[in-house]
Write a structure and sequence with these properties.
The complex is a heterotetramer of chains A (317), B (317), C (546) and D (330).
Chain A lengths: L1 H11 L3 H19 L6 H26 L7 H17 L4 H24 L5 H20 L9 H8 L1 E2 L2 E2 H18 L2 H11 L1 H6 L4 H27 L10 H11 L11 H20 L4 H19 L6
Antiparallel strand pairs in A: 1-2
Helix pairs in contact in A: 2-13, 3-8, 3-9, 3-11, 3-12, 3-13, 4-5, 4-6, 4-11, 5-6, 5-11, 7-11, 8-9, 9-11, 12-13
Chain C lengths: L4 E10 L2 E11 L4 E6 L5 H9 L6 E6 L2 E2 L6 H6 L2 E4 L11 H5 L13 H14 L15 H14 L4 E5 L7 H16 L3 E5 L3 H7 L2 E6 L2 E7 L5 H9 L20 E8 L3 E8 L4 E5 L6 H8 L6 E6 L2 E2 L5 H6 L2 E4 L3 H5 L6 H6 L3 H4 L10 H14 L16 H10 L8 E5 L7 H16 L3 E5 L3 H7 L2 E6 L2 E7 L5 H10 L7 H7 L10 H14 L12
Parallel strand pairs in C: 3-8, 3-9, 6-7, 7-8, 13-18, 13-19, 16-17, 17-18
Antiparallel strand pairs in C: 1-2, 1-4, 4-5, 9-10, 11-12, 11-14, 14-15, 19-20
Helix pairs in contact in C: 4-5, 6-20, 18-20
Chain D lengths: L5 H9 L8 E7 L5 H19 L3 E8 L4 H13 L4 E5 L7 H9 L3 E5 L9 E4 L2 H15 L4 E7 L5 H16 L3 E8 L4 H14 L5 E4 L2 H13 L7 E4 L2 H10 L6 E4 L5 H13 L7 E3 L10 H4 L16 H7 L3
Parallel strand pairs in D: 1-2, 1-3, 3-4, 4-5, 5-11, 6-7, 6-8, 9-10
Classes of the chains: A mainly alpha (317), B mainly alpha (317), C alpha/beta (546), D alpha/beta (330).
The complex binds adenosine-5'-triphosphate (ATP) (2 copies) and magnesium ion (MG) (2 copies).
Chain lengths: 317, 317, 546, 330
Amino acid sequence: MSGLVAVSAAALRGSRAAWAFGVLALTWLAAILFADGFDSVSNFRYLVQTASFLGIVAVGQTLVVIMSGIDLSVSGVVALSAVVCAKVASGTGGGATGITAALALSALVGAVNAAGVVWLRVPPMVMTLATGTILAGALLVYTDGSPSSAAVPLLDSLANGRLLGVPWAFVLWLGITAVAGWLLHLSRTGRYAFALGAGESAARASGVPLGATAFTAYVSCALLAGVAGLVLLGFTGTSSLTMGNPYQLLSIASVVLGGTSILGGRGHLLGTVGGALLLTLLTALLTSWNLSEGVRQVVLGVLIIGLLLVYARERRT
Amino acid sequence: MRERITTAARGNTDLLGLLALLLVLLVAYQHYDPSLLSPASVTILSAQFLPLILAAAGQTTVMLLGGIDLSLGAVLGLAMAVFATYDARGAGGVMTAAALALCVAVAAGAVNGTLVAYAGLPPIVVTLAASFLWSGVTLVVLPQPGGHVPAGLVDAYNNGWYGIALPAAALALVLAVWKLLRTTRHGLALYAVGGNEHGAYASGLHTRGVKIGGYALAGAFTGLAGIGLAVQTGSADPTIGTPYTLNSIAASVLGGISFFGGVGRMRGTVLGALVIGLLTNLLLFTGISPFYQLVIQGVILVAALALKTYVTREAAE
Amino acid sequence: MAPLLSVEQVSKSFAGNQVLKEVSFTVGPGEVLALVGENGAGKSTVLSLVTGLLTPDSGRVVHEGAPVPRAWSPHRARAAGIGSVHQELSLNPHQSVAENVFLGAWPSRRGLVRARDLAARARPLLERVGLDIDPRTRAGRLPLGRQQLVELAKALASEPRLLILDEATSALDEEQVGAVFRVVRELRDQGGSVIFVSHRMAELFAVSDRLTVLKDGAVTATRERERTDHDDIVRLMVGRELSDLFPEKGTGTAPEPLLRARDLTVPGACSSVDLDLAPGRVVGLGGLQGQGQREVLRALFGLARHTGRITLEGRPVRLSSPRDAIRHRVAYVPEDRKTEGVHTARSVRDNLALPSLRTLAPGSRLTTVSRTAETRLVAELTERLRIRAASPAQEARRLSGGNQQKVALAKWLPADPRVLLLAEPTRGIDIGTKREIYHLLRRLADEGLAVLVTSGDTMELVGLCDEVAVLYEGRVVDRLAGPALTEERLVRASVMGTATETDTEKDTEKDTEADEPSALLPQQVAQAIDDIDDGDRPEPGSVAHA
Amino acid sequence: NVESDSDTAKSGASASAAAAKDLKVGWSTIYLTPSWMQQTLKMLQADVDKLKSAGKVSTFKTFNANGDTSQQISQIRAMIQQKYDVILVDAGSSTALNPALEQAVAAGITVVAFDSLPTSKKVIRVGTDQKAWGSMMAEWLAGKLDGKGSVIAMNGPAGVAVSEDRWAGAETVFKKYPGIKIVSNVHSEYNLAPAAQSFASAYSAHPDIDGVFSQGGALSAAALQTLIKQDKKLVPITGENYNGFLKLWKSKQKEGFSSIATAQPNYLSVIALEAAVAKVEGVSVPQDITVPLPEITDDNLSEYVQTDQPDDSYPINDMPQSEIDKLIGK
Ligand SMILES: Nc1ncnc2c1ncn2[C@@H]1O[C@H](COP(=O)(O)OP(=O)(O)OP(=O)(O)O)[C@@H](O)[C@H]1O
Ligand SMILES: Nc1ncnc2c1ncn2[C@@H]1O[C@H](COP(=O)(O)OP(=O)(O)OP(=O)(O)O)[C@@H](O)[C@H]1O
Ligand SMILES: [Mg+2]
Ligand SMILES: [Mg+2]
């Protein structure tokens, strides 16, 4: 763990991920000073709790983006895992079986994504889009259209409970970030992922196991989307087929706002944490102002572009 | 003569498969709808497909430059909204409304292009953020479905005008313009920048200008798609554009446009869009359960792309 | 006479690293100036200031009597009559040769560019640079050397008065170099100027009027060609005498081969190639450009699909992917450095460590990579191959070409390879480093490695290899070893595509003292080619290149 | 034979005595994934089965546009080409389908829209009054607050007619009460987690609100859940027959939580189908059928809430046939 901290500190110094945190701190400060309600502890707590749902998905997305992929099926997987877990848990299975089944299926989807990208050579964007579509259909068939509700105590306390005043969901997110950070920044597989993201031909010619790396990234991403689905199930107590939709593009936005290059091969997982928090904070800020929805979206778009201009530009030559 | 045919065929090998697929679909379609080749059917179908084809043409233009446009759906909605609301005010006839809508779309494209060219931000990121921006603007222009398009025009578009399928004519016109454009310096520059940006820059090309021009052209195609959709539906709807983003990408990729830029032809994209359009229609005719329709769509997309990659890889070796 | 171009006191730094220090030189009309210097001396950088790719921090560039405007750019430079071939290829692989030749300035009639017109106009330009290809071919389908000539044609298309050739001959074989020289002399005779950069000393002396030497970003000297020689320039460049460019060859009889390839065939590139690679031996693959040398190497590294039997230490092996090859301790330094050799966007450190991750993180793929061991490894390799980087964290693309090449080779050394495959290992490498690499390769061979090298540089093959197999249209047409390995015989076999047994005696006689390569090689070669030309010479390079 | 020629079907319909026989019915819906749609489909299917055994309907097909209005247009055109007799539609856009639907009408097809309605005057439209929905909720809330207080408004996605209409209805009511202040107007997908997040943001900016106007069940549930989780005062929140909300409401009733809810009844679909069949049979069906909004109050809550059913469902009782007949003018 101390290795991770040291490496992260070194990587963050003067990097774009550090910018994400800088901007986050400034925005938060501005919010506390100039907007109502952002100085309350309960709001803070709620913000990090709800940011965790997005954040967990975004951590997975980072793994895929670093190796120059993209996963548009996360929305489908979030719904898949929640729906399956709820249905199993509310039926005969019970909570533990439900969670296991949900995660196993999520991982399977990740494997399918990777197989399509690696073996069939379908571009990641199209492949994951297609699996997302297939998932939506498959879930309709599976649920026969009526997703269940379920109270799984473990998930309930995971989503809503607190540890020393800190929401468990946030703790879980940070834990996941630490594990994924170790995978990406310390382990051999992580190095392979960066190499693959920086250039496939050179990676192949250096003996990087392309297939295995892609599988690890896609399966981890799908697993994390599955975890997010479970936490959401705990949070809302119910599942629905559309519950993952908001996380598809927002997870990508978080990754990018966190300073990770969308082209792959460059970035830091911690940046994504900052990115997800920043995005959640911005949305919350905009919500707390009484603007029309159109203006709100314009402001959000302009803000994101502005931030990216400040620290996410790709240098040439 | 035969030589010319074989040369033409060789130049289009990548499209032959797609063409064959299209033929198969047409035959199947004919089976369900024997009136397929009647003028009325041609009018109806072309009216239906025109917006997607035009949107895909816009997406293709950007992809040829090595970019991708995730804000396409939003810009399409914006053009549609401007067209129908301006017309609703009765302030100067359809032509002015169309010109205005087109200008707005071109401007939106140029803004995207400027951000990509000057800011050094990856296109996918710029257009993702811009999608918030443009859909926000759309909501400001048109907060809820409405607007107005002259009934005569709607009727002429959807049911033919003195026996002429207007959408088909519009499509032919646009393709002719593209073909012409493709042989101008601007067209060649588009491919040159898409194929090797730095090389083009080092060889003295105004790569930034070319990019902005390309994105603006994409905006024009998208704007036309929006106007087409407005005329088809007789109104505007601020949220109707969204699905066009991903559908246009699917059509372009199916049509052989590379994600890396510089490779592909507009005719491929048109075929790709037709295949997607016909396929969805065919699924309606076959009466497969709606639950399974999504699954089948996804599977077919992946299968078609995988097959295409496989075939072209064999051919390339 | 007023100089056509004068560079006055220019300095340039990248992120605090000063790359040019008050560099000045001039080129007059009708003059060929050679810029000489080690890798990373700043040649390309100073030329980028002239072509508008970069702007100087201080100093100025004066072109045709007037300082270039602030908004100097490649576009303006071209319009002002400066044509250039950059060190890095700038072709669009997906467009036709003709479209590339006129890139950015396509001739059009009433706004439309006609393909036939384009091809017709491209043809004379291509002929001028000695290329006999269909202008409608996609540029990416051409072998590297031909692509480089297309670049030259592209530079000529704008009818430049100043032509800048930054290692424009690095991928060319002798015949192609001859074509470039023809163009250069033509231009000079018409009063134009040329700035010429190359790491092949012989070329420099063959074509330049003056030589300006750069060292560590500063001009150390400018010499008239008549008043200098090879050793003088090398001393100025490297800062010391350079003796024995090539190491001693291996002695004794050939040991038992380590890797045997029989009937090696890569469809469309080479067929029925037999090769024996033995520990301690450096084997070369010779021949004209694109006769299948590259594919043989790629096949042996599992990058090209092939048929045939390959055995390692007598055991048959299947090499169907680089991972297979690496597992059998085969290493490969590719020709295409930027896409296969190194990760240009990653740091030197990451590049060097990549193939050794298995040793840095033994155990499973989830094992943590040891940072200290990595640092040690990187420091060792940087030291051993004298890689010049600002720091190990510098991105590989910020290194000079020669140093990138060193990285591409160095990264394999810790993996303890048994077979080393090198494609054009010294392309774009300065003479000092070349010497280092030759000696390094020989040292590696002496340590028991089997080395296979391809090179377009005949002198290099003759000087370095114990044995050279000459490929012609994908087949081995001759094998030269020992005293039979001479430049003349190599060139002869390359262009004629047959073995030259009949001449053996005469050749050995003549070449007894020709071990030290002569500085005037190209003329010699051209002569040799001319000799052969009298006979009926088959068309070279007609093998399709995948 | 009804199928062979749509023109005869039309003339047959206008001549009084014709009986509906073996009708080919298609339903085009913009979404099929939300639970409400699923429930609607089931209810519709049950009615189809009934009509099938009565020999009135021969086939029934559902088409899912999956959120793509353009695809819905294709679906309608395909149904025209395939000579369907009845087209039911749940429209993805209030305007975009008009030309296609009118073309269907012109081809002699009986077109009935329900739930989310197109603006076309040529089709039969079965719906509830969305403006009335908004004003009903607003009136109740205003009454509950005695005409003064701060209110957060939770609305559906921007740019969608249903959402905008409900809000328009509410707004006219709130205008009448100058004491009521809308401190924040939140738009959200009908999706629990993001809605909860949006509500929490608005709420922490305005923690001293006196009530919440919500125009959708998931939004109400999100708001109420947030108040409960943060242990805050349970101010009145308007609602919908979303079971998750009803359950929460019931469980918090003892703690003084009070609400009102209405419903977009699933039986709209049944009424639509019955209306279509009646129309073919020659009954003069009114062009606009406005189904009264049910009212769920603190008193009759237990008649609706179904504690054993999933949260994501919309409990509603079937409408008696007699009332349906009355509505469709039989
Ligand atoms: N289209 C291009 N493709 C490749 N390189 C380019 C391109 N345009 C500019 N460059 C290079 O980037 C350098 C920076 O250009 P310029 O100073 O105009 O950009 P800028 O927007 O000011 O960027 P920055 O703020 O990073 O300096 C140029 O000197 C040139 O070498
Ligand atoms: N864009 C850049 N950013 C940082 N450093 C750079 C950049 N371009 C070049 N350098 C550095 O400047 C120095 C000079 O590089 P340059 O490419 O001019 O060398 P060169 O003389 O052309 O070498 P070679 O013979 O290998 O081509 C090198 O040390 C290189 O690392
Ligand atoms: Mg600048
Ligand atoms: Mg150089």
